[in-house]
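I hope you will forgive my troubling you with a question about protein structure. Here, with my thanks, is the record as I have it:
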Amino acid sequence: MSLDAQLTFADHMARFCARRYSYPPMVGRVLGYLAVCDSPAPTIADLSNALLASRTAITNAIATLESVGQVVRTRAAGERMDRVSIDIMSARGLGMDNSEYAELGALAREGLELLRDAPPERRAVLGEIAAFTDFLCSRIPALYEEWRKEREALIAAGEIPSPPTEGRRP
């Protein structure tokens, strides 16, 4: 695949991520490029050169992606530079981290406590948020485990390859 095609895909990912997640364009470009580049774990310098962006812009984009669990930095023994790869099985990156929903549920319950004497109509939105987050927290662990098993079966059947960075997550 040509570099032009890779950059076009990275730009498409940038637009998607900006629209869906309000990420700055460089965050989506880095994520898109990591998904299609030849190297399974390029360095920050590699990303900077390929995306024609400053190292600072790349580093900031990686920090954003790390904060949401979508990428991981690794460093081989003896290397002086970080390598970056997509963390394909991160529960947080897949939207399957219960802590976010548990925190939102706790916040909704805090609001409900403030409104404990208010009429039910006024408490309705927070009550539904609390119930929904409880529902998600009860269901997501099983769904995530189901996906892990499905993924293992797909890898075993040769339908999807095991990523080259498998097992390198901290």
